[in-house]
Amino acid sequence: MPRGKGKLGKKARGPGPPHHTPLASHRKDGTGLVPPLGSHGVQVFDWPRDMLPEHLWIASLAEQFTLEQAHVHYHAFLDAMDNFGSAKSPHLGLISDFGGMALGRREEFWNRHEDLIEAVFHEPIGRILALYPQNPAAWLIREDLLEKGGRLDPAVEIGRLRAIVLKLISGNEMFPGHVRTLPFTRMAKHGMVDLNDAGLIDLMMKYPQGCTKEEANRVQVVARSFTKLHLSQSGVYDGQDWPKQFWRQNFNLVACIPGVFPIVGANPIKDDQIDQLHQTVEENAGRAREYLRTQSLRLNYDLYDPVKDEILSGLFARSVRLFCLMAEDSKLWRRDIGGIVLRCLADTTITFAYLAKCGTAQEFVQFKKYGEGQEKLLMLHLQDTYPEYKTLEGRDASAIAQELGGFNAELISIELGHWSKKDTRKMALACGMERLYRLVYSPGSGDLHGTWVSLKQSNLNRCIEPLHRLHRLPSFVQPPAFLDVIAAAQELWESAVKIGVDSLGYPALDPPLDIVAGIGRRTFEGESDTR
Fold first, then answer.
1. Which of 253, 286, 320 is at the close of a domain?
2. What is the pLDDT of residues 191-221, one digit of tens each?
3. Angle at 218 between CA 216 and CA 224, to 5 degrees
4. What is the pTM of this model?
5. Domain boundary among 223, 253, 283
Protein backbone atom coordinates (compact mmCIF):
# COMPACT_ATOMS: atom_id res chain seq x y z
CA MET A 1 0.00 0.00 0.00
CA PRO A 2 1.27 3.56 -0.65
CA ARG A 3 2.56 5.37 2.37
CA GLY A 4 0.40 8.12 3.78
CA LYS A 5 -2.70 7.22 1.82
CA GLY A 6 -5.71 9.19 3.07
CA LYS A 7 -3.65 11.40 5.39
CA LEU A 8 -4.79 14.58 6.99
CA GLY A 9 -1.42 16.16 6.29
CA LYS A 10 0.55 16.71 3.12
CA LYS A 11 -0.50 14.97 -0.04
CA ALA A 12 1.15 14.76 -3.45
CA ARG A 13 -0.79 16.67 -6.07
CA GLY A 14 -1.33 15.22 -9.50
CA PRO A 15 -3.42 16.48 -12.40
CA GLY A 16 -6.70 17.81 -11.10
CA PRO A 17 -9.03 20.77 -11.07
CA PRO A 18 -7.62 24.29 -11.28
CA HIS A 19 -6.24 25.78 -8.10
CA HIS A 20 -8.89 27.97 -6.50
CA THR A 21 -8.49 31.48 -5.14
CA PRO A 22 -6.51 31.24 -1.88
CA LEU A 23 -8.13 32.20 1.41
CA ALA A 24 -5.93 35.28 1.68
CA SER A 25 -7.69 36.76 -1.37
CA HIS A 26 -11.16 36.44 0.16
CA ARG A 27 -12.75 39.61 1.55
CA LYS A 28 -14.31 39.69 5.01
CA ASP A 29 -17.99 40.53 4.88
CA GLY A 30 -19.72 40.52 8.25
CA THR A 31 -19.08 37.03 9.63
CA GLY A 32 -18.15 35.43 6.28
CA LEU A 33 -15.44 35.37 3.63
CA VAL A 34 -16.36 36.48 0.11
CA PRO A 35 -14.21 35.40 -2.88
CA PRO A 36 -13.19 38.10 -5.41
CA LEU A 37 -15.70 36.97 -8.05
CA GLY A 38 -18.43 36.72 -5.44
CA SER A 39 -17.99 40.38 -4.53
CA HIS A 40 -18.69 41.33 -8.17
CA GLY A 41 -22.00 39.51 -8.27
CA VAL A 42 -20.87 36.80 -10.71
CA GLN A 43 -23.63 34.18 -10.93
CA VAL A 44 -23.18 30.45 -11.36
CA PHE A 45 -24.52 29.21 -14.71
CA ASP A 46 -26.77 26.24 -13.86
CA TRP A 47 -26.81 24.29 -17.10
CA PRO A 48 -29.09 21.35 -16.13
CA ARG A 49 -31.66 23.43 -14.29
CA ASP A 50 -32.01 26.53 -16.45
CA MET A 51 -30.63 25.82 -19.93
CA LEU A 52 -30.95 22.10 -20.64
CA PRO A 53 -34.76 22.43 -21.11
CA GLU A 54 -34.14 25.31 -23.51
CA HIS A 55 -31.96 23.15 -25.78
CA LEU A 56 -34.37 20.24 -26.20
CA TRP A 57 -35.41 21.12 -29.74
CA ILE A 58 -31.81 21.47 -30.91
CA ALA A 59 -30.92 18.16 -29.27
CA SER A 60 -33.91 16.48 -30.92
CA LEU A 61 -32.60 17.67 -34.30
CA ALA A 62 -29.24 16.04 -33.56
CA GLU A 63 -31.07 12.83 -32.65
CA GLN A 64 -33.27 12.95 -35.77
CA PHE A 65 -30.74 14.08 -38.37
CA THR A 66 -27.35 13.22 -36.71
CA LEU A 67 -24.85 15.66 -35.26
CA GLU A 68 -23.27 16.22 -38.67
CA GLN A 69 -26.52 17.29 -40.36
CA ALA A 70 -28.50 18.91 -37.57
CA HIS A 71 -27.17 22.39 -38.36
CA VAL A 72 -28.68 22.34 -41.87
CA HIS A 73 -32.23 21.88 -40.57
CA TYR A 74 -31.57 24.13 -37.58
CA HIS A 75 -30.61 27.12 -39.69
CA ALA A 76 -33.33 26.48 -42.30
CA PHE A 77 -36.06 26.59 -39.68
CA LEU A 78 -34.67 29.60 -37.81
CA ASP A 79 -34.07 31.55 -41.03
CA ALA A 80 -37.76 31.14 -41.70
CA MET A 81 -38.56 32.22 -38.15
CA ASP A 82 -36.40 35.32 -38.44
CA ASN A 83 -38.53 36.54 -41.34
CA PHE A 84 -41.43 36.76 -38.91
CA GLY A 85 -39.60 38.44 -36.06
CA SER A 86 -37.22 41.29 -35.26
CA ALA A 87 -33.94 41.34 -37.15
CA LYS A 88 -32.29 42.70 -33.98
CA SER A 89 -33.23 39.59 -32.02
CA PRO A 90 -32.52 36.51 -34.11
CA HIS A 91 -33.96 33.24 -32.90
CA LEU A 92 -31.35 30.96 -31.31
CA GLY A 93 -33.60 27.90 -31.28
CA LEU A 94 -34.14 27.84 -27.52
CA ILE A 95 -37.62 26.70 -26.53
CA SER A 96 -38.44 30.07 -24.99
CA ASP A 97 -37.61 31.75 -28.32
CA PHE A 98 -40.65 30.15 -29.93
CA GLY A 99 -42.95 31.99 -27.56
CA GLY A 100 -41.55 35.30 -28.81
CA MET A 101 -43.29 35.26 -32.19
CA ALA A 102 -46.14 37.78 -32.33
CA LEU A 103 -49.55 36.13 -31.96
CA GLY A 104 -50.79 37.77 -35.15
CA ARG A 105 -48.04 36.20 -37.27
CA ARG A 106 -48.21 32.61 -36.10
CA GLU A 107 -51.01 31.53 -38.43
CA GLU A 108 -49.20 33.12 -41.37
CA PHE A 109 -46.03 31.21 -40.42
CA TRP A 110 -48.03 27.97 -40.42
CA ASN A 111 -49.56 28.75 -43.81
CA ARG A 112 -46.18 29.42 -45.41
CA HIS A 113 -44.07 26.74 -43.72
CA GLU A 114 -46.33 23.82 -42.77
CA ASP A 115 -44.08 21.21 -44.40
CA LEU A 116 -41.00 22.65 -42.71
CA ILE A 117 -42.74 22.72 -39.33
CA GLU A 118 -43.84 19.12 -39.69
CA ALA A 119 -40.42 17.83 -40.76
CA VAL A 120 -38.14 19.91 -38.56
CA PHE A 121 -40.25 20.53 -35.47
CA HIS A 122 -43.18 18.14 -35.20
CA GLU A 123 -41.37 14.95 -36.04
CA PRO A 124 -38.30 15.52 -33.85
CA ILE A 125 -39.98 16.95 -30.72
CA GLY A 126 -43.66 17.76 -31.22
CA ARG A 127 -44.95 14.63 -29.53
CA ILE A 128 -42.59 15.13 -26.59
CA LEU A 129 -43.60 18.75 -26.05
CA ALA A 130 -47.25 17.74 -26.21
CA LEU A 131 -46.70 16.43 -22.67
CA TYR A 132 -46.12 20.07 -21.62
CA PRO A 133 -49.30 21.89 -22.76
CA GLN A 134 -48.15 25.32 -21.55
CA ASN A 135 -44.71 25.27 -23.20
CA PRO A 136 -43.72 28.36 -25.26
CA ALA A 137 -43.72 26.36 -28.53
CA ALA A 138 -47.21 24.90 -27.98
CA TRP A 139 -48.52 26.88 -30.96
CA LEU A 140 -46.28 24.80 -33.23
CA ILE A 141 -48.02 21.58 -32.14
CA ARG A 142 -51.25 20.57 -33.91
CA GLU A 143 -53.62 17.76 -32.98
CA ASP A 144 -54.01 16.56 -36.58
CA LEU A 145 -50.24 16.13 -36.95
CA LEU A 146 -50.06 14.32 -33.62
CA GLU A 147 -52.82 11.92 -34.74
CA LYS A 148 -51.01 11.42 -38.00
CA GLY A 149 -48.19 9.74 -36.11
CA GLY A 150 -50.53 7.41 -34.22
CA ARG A 151 -51.84 7.45 -30.67
CA LEU A 152 -49.71 9.57 -28.34
CA ASP A 153 -48.11 7.14 -25.89
CA PRO A 154 -46.58 9.07 -22.96
CA ALA A 155 -44.36 6.12 -22.02
CA VAL A 156 -42.78 6.10 -25.47
CA GLU A 157 -42.24 9.87 -25.59
CA ILE A 158 -40.92 9.96 -22.01
CA GLY A 159 -38.44 7.25 -23.00
CA ARG A 160 -37.27 9.35 -25.95
CA LEU A 161 -37.06 12.45 -23.76
CA ARG A 162 -35.17 10.58 -21.05
CA ALA A 163 -32.56 9.49 -23.62
CA ILE A 164 -32.09 13.09 -24.78
CA VAL A 165 -31.81 14.42 -21.23
CA LEU A 166 -29.24 11.75 -20.34
CA LYS A 167 -27.11 12.87 -23.28
CA LEU A 168 -27.44 16.53 -22.38
CA ILE A 169 -27.16 16.53 -18.61
CA SER A 170 -23.35 16.48 -18.36
CA GLY A 171 -23.19 19.69 -20.39
CA ASN A 172 -19.57 19.49 -21.61
CA GLU A 173 -19.25 16.23 -23.54
CA MET A 174 -19.33 16.02 -27.33
CA PHE A 175 -23.08 15.68 -27.88
CA PRO A 176 -24.22 18.47 -25.50
CA GLY A 177 -21.17 20.48 -26.52
CA HIS A 178 -22.30 20.43 -30.15
CA VAL A 179 -25.90 21.21 -29.24
CA ARG A 180 -24.69 24.22 -27.28
CA THR A 181 -22.50 25.34 -30.17
CA LEU A 182 -25.37 25.81 -32.64
CA PRO A 183 -26.81 28.93 -30.94
CA PHE A 184 -23.33 30.42 -31.13
CA THR A 185 -23.23 29.80 -34.90
CA ARG A 186 -26.54 31.59 -35.09
CA MET A 187 -25.09 34.61 -33.32
CA ALA A 188 -22.05 34.55 -35.59
CA LYS A 189 -24.28 34.44 -38.66
CA HIS A 190 -26.05 37.59 -37.47
CA GLY A 191 -22.83 39.49 -36.74
CA MET A 192 -23.19 39.29 -32.97
CA VAL A 193 -19.72 37.77 -32.49
CA ASP A 194 -16.41 39.56 -33.07
CA LEU A 195 -13.42 37.20 -33.19
CA ASN A 196 -9.86 38.36 -33.80
CA ASP A 197 -8.24 34.93 -33.60
CA ALA A 198 -7.59 33.84 -37.20
CA GLY A 199 -6.72 30.30 -36.15
CA LEU A 200 -9.95 29.96 -34.22
CA ILE A 201 -11.93 31.33 -37.15
CA ASP A 202 -10.35 28.70 -39.42
CA LEU A 203 -11.34 25.97 -36.94
CA MET A 204 -14.89 27.23 -36.86
CA MET A 205 -15.09 27.21 -40.64
CA LYS A 206 -14.35 23.48 -40.76
CA TYR A 207 -16.25 22.54 -37.56
CA PRO A 208 -17.42 19.86 -36.90
CA GLN A 209 -16.57 17.33 -39.61
CA GLY A 210 -13.15 18.76 -40.48
CA CYS A 211 -11.89 19.07 -36.87
CA THR A 212 -10.00 16.70 -34.66
CA LYS A 213 -11.58 15.92 -31.29
CA GLU A 214 -9.26 18.44 -29.60
CA GLU A 215 -10.06 21.13 -32.18
CA ALA A 216 -13.80 20.50 -31.89
CA ASN A 217 -13.53 20.76 -28.12
CA ARG A 218 -11.76 24.14 -28.43
CA VAL A 219 -14.53 25.46 -30.67
CA GLN A 220 -17.17 24.22 -28.24
CA VAL A 221 -15.48 25.84 -25.25
CA VAL A 222 -15.37 29.21 -27.03
CA ALA A 223 -18.95 28.81 -28.20
CA ARG A 224 -20.19 28.03 -24.70
CA SER A 225 -18.36 31.03 -23.26
CA PHE A 226 -19.78 33.45 -25.81
CA THR A 227 -23.30 32.03 -25.49
CA LYS A 228 -23.28 32.19 -21.69
CA LEU A 229 -22.02 35.79 -21.86
CA HIS A 230 -24.78 36.71 -24.31
CA LEU A 231 -27.50 35.01 -22.26
CA SER A 232 -26.37 36.66 -19.02
CA GLN A 233 -25.88 40.14 -20.49
CA SER A 234 -28.96 40.27 -22.70
CA GLY A 235 -31.34 39.34 -19.90
CA VAL A 236 -33.71 37.95 -22.53
CA TYR A 237 -34.00 34.61 -20.74
CA ASP A 238 -34.11 35.93 -17.19
CA GLY A 239 -37.24 34.77 -15.45
CA GLN A 240 -38.42 32.54 -18.27
CA ASP A 241 -41.06 30.08 -17.09
CA TRP A 242 -40.21 27.20 -19.41
CA PRO A 243 -37.38 25.60 -17.34
CA LYS A 244 -39.61 25.74 -14.25
CA GLN A 245 -42.53 24.24 -16.18
CA PHE A 246 -40.34 21.46 -17.55
CA TRP A 247 -38.84 20.23 -14.29
CA ARG A 248 -42.01 20.64 -12.25
CA GLN A 249 -44.17 18.86 -14.82
CA ASN A 250 -41.66 16.00 -14.85
CA PHE A 251 -42.51 15.28 -11.23
CA ASN A 252 -46.10 14.67 -12.37
CA LEU A 253 -45.08 12.61 -15.38
CA VAL A 254 -42.68 10.11 -13.82
CA ALA A 255 -42.10 8.70 -10.33
CA CYS A 256 -38.89 8.95 -8.34
CA ILE A 257 -36.41 6.08 -8.55
CA PRO A 258 -34.36 6.07 -5.33
CA GLY A 259 -30.78 5.06 -5.88
CA VAL A 260 -27.94 4.62 -3.43
CA PHE A 261 -25.06 6.67 -4.76
CA PRO A 262 -21.68 5.92 -3.16
CA ILE A 263 -20.36 8.84 -1.17
CA VAL A 264 -16.95 9.81 -2.44
CA GLY A 265 -14.25 9.64 0.19
CA ALA A 266 -10.81 8.33 0.89
CA ASN A 267 -10.31 4.68 1.86
CA PRO A 268 -13.74 3.04 2.06
CA ILE A 269 -13.60 -0.24 3.98
CA LYS A 270 -13.13 -3.32 1.81
CA ASP A 271 -14.44 -6.77 2.67
CA ASP A 272 -11.00 -8.38 2.84
CA GLN A 273 -9.83 -5.74 5.36
CA ILE A 274 -12.58 -6.15 7.94
CA ASP A 275 -11.06 -8.89 10.12
CA GLN A 276 -7.60 -7.29 10.11
CA LEU A 277 -9.11 -3.90 10.81
CA HIS A 278 -11.13 -5.00 13.84
CA GLN A 279 -8.17 -6.83 15.32
CA THR A 280 -5.87 -3.85 14.85
CA VAL A 281 -8.18 -1.22 16.31
CA GLU A 282 -9.11 -3.41 19.28
CA GLU A 283 -5.43 -3.90 20.08
CA ASN A 284 -4.85 -0.15 19.73
CA ALA A 285 -7.76 0.59 22.08
CA GLY A 286 -6.30 -1.83 24.59
CA ARG A 287 -2.95 -0.05 24.47
CA ALA A 288 -4.67 3.32 24.94
CA ARG A 289 -6.48 2.06 28.04
CA GLU A 290 -3.29 0.56 29.46
CA TYR A 291 -1.42 3.81 28.79
CA LEU A 292 -4.07 5.78 30.72
CA ARG A 293 -4.03 3.30 33.61
CA THR A 294 -0.22 3.42 33.85
CA GLN A 295 -0.14 7.19 33.52
CA SER A 296 -2.76 7.67 36.24
CA LEU A 297 -0.48 5.89 38.71
CA ARG A 298 2.50 8.09 37.83
CA LEU A 299 0.86 11.52 38.03
CA ASN A 300 2.27 13.88 40.64
CA TYR A 301 -0.72 15.94 41.84
CA ASP A 302 -0.47 19.24 43.68
CA LEU A 303 -2.89 18.31 46.43
CA TYR A 304 -3.04 21.89 47.74
CA ASP A 305 -4.26 23.18 44.36
CA PRO A 306 -5.11 20.16 42.16
CA VAL A 307 -7.31 22.04 39.66
CA LYS A 308 -4.71 22.17 36.89
CA ASP A 309 -3.75 18.51 37.24
CA GLU A 310 -7.37 17.38 37.42
CA ILE A 311 -8.38 19.34 34.32
CA LEU A 312 -5.47 18.05 32.24
CA SER A 313 -5.99 14.49 33.45
CA GLY A 314 -9.72 14.70 32.78
CA LEU A 315 -9.23 16.00 29.26
CA PHE A 316 -6.69 13.30 28.48
CA ALA A 317 -8.96 10.58 29.93
CA ARG A 318 -11.83 11.92 27.81
CA SER A 319 -9.66 11.66 24.69
CA VAL A 320 -8.89 8.02 25.57
CA ARG A 321 -12.57 7.22 26.10
CA LEU A 322 -13.70 8.81 22.83
CA PHE A 323 -10.92 7.11 20.87
CA CYS A 324 -11.68 3.70 22.41
CA LEU A 325 -15.41 4.10 21.77
CA MET A 326 -14.72 4.74 18.09
CA ALA A 327 -12.13 1.99 17.83
CA GLU A 328 -14.43 -0.66 19.29
CA ASP A 329 -17.72 0.24 17.58
CA SER A 330 -17.64 0.29 13.78
CA LYS A 331 -21.06 1.98 13.73
CA LEU A 332 -19.17 5.12 14.76
CA TRP A 333 -17.07 4.97 11.58
CA ARG A 334 -20.04 6.06 9.51
CA ARG A 335 -19.44 9.46 7.98
CA ASP A 336 -22.10 11.38 9.91
CA ILE A 337 -21.86 9.81 13.37
CA GLY A 338 -18.10 9.53 12.97
CA GLY A 339 -17.94 13.25 12.22
CA ILE A 340 -19.89 14.06 15.38
CA VAL A 341 -17.64 11.98 17.62
CA LEU A 342 -14.49 13.19 15.84
CA ARG A 343 -15.59 16.75 16.44
CA CYS A 344 -15.88 16.05 20.17
CA LEU A 345 -12.50 14.31 20.17
CA ALA A 346 -10.89 17.18 18.23
CA ASP A 347 -12.42 19.72 20.63
CA THR A 348 -11.00 17.80 23.60
CA THR A 349 -7.57 17.44 21.98
CA ILE A 350 -7.34 21.13 21.08
CA THR A 351 -8.38 22.18 24.59
CA PHE A 352 -5.88 19.75 26.14
CA ALA A 353 -3.09 20.96 23.83
CA TYR A 354 -3.86 24.63 24.49
CA LEU A 355 -3.92 24.29 28.28
CA ALA A 356 -0.87 22.01 28.34
CA LYS A 357 1.23 24.33 26.17
CA CYS A 358 -0.20 27.81 26.74
CA GLY A 359 -2.57 27.68 29.72
CA THR A 360 -2.07 30.23 32.51
CA ALA A 361 -3.11 29.69 36.13
CA GLN A 362 -6.02 32.07 35.55
CA GLU A 363 -7.23 30.11 32.50
CA PHE A 364 -7.38 26.87 34.48
CA VAL A 365 -9.54 28.69 37.02
CA GLN A 366 -11.71 30.07 34.22
CA PHE A 367 -12.15 26.58 32.76
CA LYS A 368 -13.44 25.23 36.08
CA LYS A 369 -15.61 28.25 36.82
CA TYR A 370 -17.18 28.06 33.39
CA GLY A 371 -18.32 24.49 34.06
CA GLU A 372 -19.64 25.42 37.49
CA GLY A 373 -21.49 28.37 35.96
CA GLN A 374 -23.20 26.05 33.48
CA GLU A 375 -24.23 23.80 36.38
CA LYS A 376 -25.65 26.82 38.22
CA LEU A 377 -27.56 27.88 35.10
CA LEU A 378 -29.14 24.42 34.89
CA MET A 379 -29.99 24.58 38.59
CA LEU A 380 -31.76 27.93 38.14
CA HIS A 381 -33.73 26.66 35.14
CA LEU A 382 -34.95 23.70 37.21
CA GLN A 383 -35.69 25.89 40.22
CA ASP A 384 -37.44 28.78 38.50
CA THR A 385 -39.01 27.36 35.34
CA TYR A 386 -39.19 23.56 35.49
CA PRO A 387 -39.50 22.59 39.19
CA GLU A 388 -41.32 19.34 38.33
CA TYR A 389 -38.42 18.11 36.17
CA LYS A 390 -34.99 16.59 36.89
CA THR A 391 -31.73 16.34 34.97
CA LEU A 392 -30.88 13.36 32.80
CA GLU A 393 -29.03 11.89 35.77
CA GLY A 394 -32.07 12.33 38.03
CA ARG A 395 -30.88 15.40 39.97
CA ASP A 396 -33.18 18.20 41.04
CA ALA A 397 -32.23 21.82 41.76
CA SER A 398 -31.42 21.07 45.42
CA ALA A 399 -29.02 18.25 44.52
CA ILE A 400 -27.12 20.47 42.09
CA ALA A 401 -26.94 23.28 44.66
CA GLN A 402 -25.51 20.87 47.20
CA GLU A 403 -22.84 19.74 44.74
CA LEU A 404 -21.93 23.36 44.09
CA GLY A 405 -21.44 23.98 47.81
CA GLY A 406 -24.82 25.19 49.03
CA PHE A 407 -24.55 28.92 49.65
CA ASN A 408 -21.33 29.04 47.61
CA ALA A 409 -23.49 28.70 44.49
CA GLU A 410 -24.59 32.30 45.09
CA LEU A 411 -21.02 33.42 44.43
CA ILE A 412 -20.66 31.61 41.07
CA SER A 413 -20.88 33.75 37.97
CA ILE A 414 -22.39 32.40 34.73
CA GLU A 415 -20.26 32.86 31.62
CA LEU A 416 -22.35 32.86 28.44
CA GLY A 417 -19.40 33.10 26.07
CA HIS A 418 -16.36 30.86 25.70
CA TRP A 419 -14.57 29.91 28.92
CA SER A 420 -11.21 31.19 27.63
CA LYS A 421 -12.59 34.41 26.07
CA LYS A 422 -11.20 32.95 22.81
CA ASP A 423 -12.93 30.75 20.26
CA THR A 424 -11.65 27.26 19.48
CA ARG A 425 -9.96 28.41 16.27
CA LYS A 426 -7.79 30.90 18.13
CA MET A 427 -6.90 28.30 20.72
CA ALA A 428 -5.91 25.86 17.98
CA LEU A 429 -3.72 28.48 16.29
CA ALA A 430 -2.05 29.33 19.60
CA CYS A 431 -1.04 25.73 20.34
CA GLY A 432 -0.13 24.60 16.82
CA MET A 433 -3.27 22.53 16.23
CA GLU A 434 -4.64 24.54 13.32
CA ARG A 435 -4.45 21.63 10.86
CA LEU A 436 -6.63 19.40 13.02
CA TYR A 437 -9.00 22.31 13.60
CA ARG A 438 -9.42 22.94 9.88
CA LEU A 439 -9.52 19.35 8.66
CA VAL A 440 -11.36 17.59 11.51
CA TYR A 441 -12.99 19.97 14.01
CA SER A 442 -14.52 22.38 11.49
CA PRO A 443 -15.92 19.73 9.08
CA GLY A 444 -17.14 17.73 12.08
CA SER A 445 -19.13 20.75 13.21
CA GLY A 446 -21.23 20.29 10.08
CA ASP A 447 -22.14 16.77 11.19
CA LEU A 448 -22.78 17.94 14.74
CA HIS A 449 -25.17 20.70 13.65
CA GLY A 450 -26.64 18.96 10.59
CA THR A 451 -25.53 21.49 7.95
CA TRP A 452 -26.23 21.02 4.24
CA VAL A 453 -22.95 19.23 3.55
CA SER A 454 -23.68 16.65 6.25
CA LEU A 455 -27.26 16.15 5.07
CA LYS A 456 -26.34 15.54 1.46
CA GLN A 457 -23.54 13.14 2.41
CA SER A 458 -25.40 11.09 4.99
CA ASN A 459 -29.17 11.62 4.94
CA LEU A 460 -30.08 12.10 1.28
CA ASN A 461 -29.76 9.77 -1.70
CA ARG A 462 -30.08 10.65 -5.35
CA CYS A 463 -33.19 9.95 -7.40
CA ILE A 464 -31.75 8.31 -10.52
CA GLU A 465 -34.61 9.37 -12.76
CA PRO A 466 -32.93 11.75 -15.29
CA LEU A 467 -36.15 13.68 -15.76
CA HIS A 468 -36.03 14.57 -12.07
CA ARG A 469 -32.62 16.23 -12.49
CA LEU A 470 -31.05 13.75 -10.04
CA HIS A 471 -32.66 15.48 -7.08
CA ARG A 472 -32.16 14.15 -3.56
CA LEU A 473 -34.53 11.99 -1.52
CA PRO A 474 -34.58 11.39 2.26
CA SER A 475 -33.06 8.05 3.14
CA PHE A 476 -32.28 5.85 6.10
CA VAL A 477 -29.61 3.95 4.17
CA GLN A 478 -26.47 3.73 6.28
CA PRO A 479 -23.70 6.01 4.95
CA PRO A 480 -20.49 4.17 4.11
CA ALA A 481 -17.88 3.57 6.78
CA PHE A 482 -14.48 5.04 6.02
CA LEU A 483 -11.12 3.99 7.32
CA ASP A 484 -10.13 7.64 7.51
CA VAL A 485 -12.67 8.20 10.29
CA ILE A 486 -11.03 5.76 12.70
CA ALA A 487 -7.56 6.69 11.42
CA ALA A 488 -8.29 10.35 12.18
CA ALA A 489 -9.48 9.39 15.66
CA GLN A 490 -6.22 7.54 16.15
CA GLU A 491 -4.21 10.53 15.00
CA LEU A 492 -6.11 12.85 17.34
CA TRP A 493 -5.39 10.68 20.35
CA GLU A 494 -1.73 10.20 19.33
CA SER A 495 -1.43 13.98 19.07
CA ALA A 496 -2.74 14.29 22.65
CA VAL A 497 -0.09 11.79 23.76
CA LYS A 498 2.62 13.77 21.99
CA ILE A 499 1.52 16.97 23.69
CA GLY A 500 1.58 15.18 27.02
CA VAL A 501 5.09 13.84 26.35
CA ASP A 502 6.49 17.17 25.14
CA SER A 503 4.79 19.55 27.56
CA LEU A 504 3.83 17.56 30.66
CA GLY A 505 6.47 14.86 30.96
CA TYR A 506 4.19 11.96 30.07
CA PRO A 507 6.01 8.74 29.16
CA ALA A 508 6.40 7.79 25.51
CA LEU A 509 3.74 5.51 24.08
CA ASP A 510 5.56 2.18 23.89
CA PRO A 511 4.76 0.28 21.83
CA PRO A 512 3.09 2.84 19.52
CA LEU A 513 -0.29 2.11 17.99
CA ASP A 514 -0.31 -0.15 14.95
CA ILE A 515 -0.99 0.87 11.39
CA VAL A 516 -4.71 0.77 10.56
CA ALA A 517 -5.37 -1.68 7.69
CA GLY A 518 -2.48 -0.65 5.49
CA ILE A 519 -2.76 3.07 6.13
CA GLY A 520 0.41 4.69 7.33
CA ARG A 521 0.33 5.35 11.07
CA ARG A 522 -0.43 9.02 11.48
CA THR A 523 1.54 11.43 13.58
CA PHE A 524 0.79 14.94 14.74
CA GLU A 525 3.16 16.38 12.15
CA GLY A 526 1.08 14.80 9.41
CA GLU A 527 3.75 12.45 8.08
CA SER A 528 3.25 8.75 7.57
CA ASP A 529 5.32 6.39 9.65
CA THR A 530 5.82 2.71 8.89
CA ARG A 531 7.48 0.25 11.18
1. 253
2. 777 777 677 777 777 787 778 888 888 888 8
3. 100
4. 0.69
5. 253
